[in-house]
């Protein structure tokens, strides 16, 4: 597995960027670049399960490994959900099971630097190299739009 890194400087305080990342409505807005209808089903507490699903309810089963309010969020991916069935044991998911997706917010004066790291298998590398920059731009626009 390879770790990809994406970064953006955003003209907004880190509390606002955090809100854009994880609040209902904002989350769905920026993640639509990955899949229309994307949402997260969780209570957003550290240690909790989280389902990252598309408009049909298919997606990934993960857990919130670390949550430091307005600073850092780390997800550990455990499996997938397809047609309402969670799969955390098949050989297919074991290839990437345990991979991480990490979000770090760093205040730089009146700006916030958002760093995203993601473990990825080779078959999804090109997709995320094309899509994450669009997601970062969407996050930046949402955070800066009402400053």
What features would you describe in this structure?
- Helices cover 29% and strands 41% of the residues.
- It has 147 residues and is α+β, with helices and mostly antiparallel strands.
- Strand 2 and strand 3 form a beta hairpin.
- Helix 1 packs across helix 4.
- The radius of gyration is 15 Å and the shape is globular.
- The model has no long low-confidence stretch (mean pLDDT 95).
Strand content: 35-45%
Order of helices and strands: EHHEEEEEHEEH
Average pLDDT number = 95
Helix content: 25-40%
Number of strands: 8
SS summary, helix count: 4
Overall radius of gyration: 15 Å
Secondary-structure-based class equals alpha+beta
Q: Runs with pLDDT <50, length 5+?
A: none
Major sheet: size, sense and barrel closure?
8 strands, antiparallel
What is the end-to-end distance? 38 Å
Shape: globular
């Amino acid at each position: 597995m390879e770790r990809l890194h994406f970064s953006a400087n955003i003209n907004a305080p880190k509390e606002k960027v955090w809100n854009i990342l994880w609040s209902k409505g904002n989350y769905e807005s920026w993640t639509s670049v990955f899949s229309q209808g994307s949402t997260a089903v969780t209570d957003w507490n550290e240690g909790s399960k989280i389902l990252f699903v598309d408009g049909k309810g298919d997606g990934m089963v993960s857990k919130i490994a670390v949550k430091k309010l307005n600073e850092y969020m780390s997800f550990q991916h455990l499996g997938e959900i397809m047609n309402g069935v969670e799969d955390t044991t098949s050989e297919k998911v074991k290839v990437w099971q345990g991979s991480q997706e990490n979000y770090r917010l760093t205040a730089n004066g009146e700006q916030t630097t958002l760093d995203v790291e993601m473990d990825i298998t080779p078959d999804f590398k090109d997709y995320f190299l094309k899509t994450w920059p669009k997601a970062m731009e969407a996050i930046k626009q949402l955070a800066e739009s009402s400053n």
